[in-house]
Design goal:
Helix content is 49%, strand content 10%. With 240 residues, it is mainly alpha-helical. The chain is flat, with a radius of gyration of 25 Å. It contains seven helices and six strands. It has a two-stranded antiparallel sheet with strand order 1-2. This is Endonuclease/exonuclease/phosphatase domain-containing protein.
Length: 240
């Protein structure tokens, strides 16, 4: 949608003021719900080089009442390992040649008469291609199991960040207020205010993270000898 809709019809750069590779991809059905798309000012809170993207959907006709969603299942989900360019040749070797050959034959047969090609046919082809690529990735980069922790949409994030204290919350309020003012008035004065409050908010979080980690290491070091049972309980909980 970058450069095609809403406030971003001009196609603003999204990375280092040169690239526009960051975009939102949507199905045809969702396109009708898109109200606005915009590239927001760069913020060091969210990325080192990328600007945040804003996508507004108008879903008023599908609103439900009494929604209470809690997706913290604690279930173990399996994920494919990260892409490693050094293993690109191994990845190519692990592609299922027989499946690819069968898929090509299927595509050639179907496209002999394009009138017979419908949405289900396209979905089937896309799913087959996906499976071939993912199976090769599993065999190349392996899989790992990770316990999932979600959000309670009626009460905030479940796995609370212990380091996020009163000082962090105060600077977050100041940062959000500066964002609202800049969005409303857009002058250079409010832009500079936003930059300063953003920097202060990030420094405050970094400081409290460092302080929390130092304090945690100190406590864990003492606990290892004085209370080993509690020590291993914390270690095992962190590895889940």
């Amino acid at each position: 949608m970058n450069g095609r809709i809403g406030n971003d019809e001009v196609g603003k750069p999204t990375s280092k003021n040169t690239s526009v590779v960051d975009y939102a991809i949507s199905t045809a059905d969702v396109l009708y719900l898109v109200e606005n798309f915009d590239v927001l000012p760069f913020s060091s809170l969210y990325s080192d080089i990328h600007c945040p993207l804003e996508l507004v959907l108008n879903c008023s006709n599908t609103k439900q009442s009494n929604v209470n969603i809690n997706v913290e299942s604690g279930e173990n989900n399996t994920y494919i390992g990260k892409w490693n360019h050094d293993q690109v040749n191994e990845y190519k070797e692990n592609l299922d040649k027989e499946s690819i050959s069968q898929l090509l034959s299927f595509i050639m047969t179907k496209t002999e008469n394009v009138q017979n090609v419908d949405k289900n046919t396209i979905d089937e082809i896309v799913n087959e291609i996906r499976d071939v690529l993912l199976n090769s990735a599993r065999n190349t980069f392996g899989e790992f199991v990770q316990k999932t922790y979600g959000f309670d949409y009626t009460g905030g994030k479940q796995n609370h960040r212990d380091w996020f204290n009163t000082e962090c919350r105060r600077e977050r309020r100041a940062f959000r207020k500066s964002k609202r003012l800049y969005k409303r008035y857009g002058s250079r004065i409010f832009k500079e205010r936003l930059r300063r409050s953003e920097t202060l908010y990030k420094k405050t979080m970094d400081k409290n993270i460092r302080s929390f980690n130092v304090d945690l290491r100190s406590k864990m070091k003492k606990m290892r000898t004085k209370n080993p049972k509690e020590f291993w309980k914390i270690i095992n909980r962190g590895s889940e």
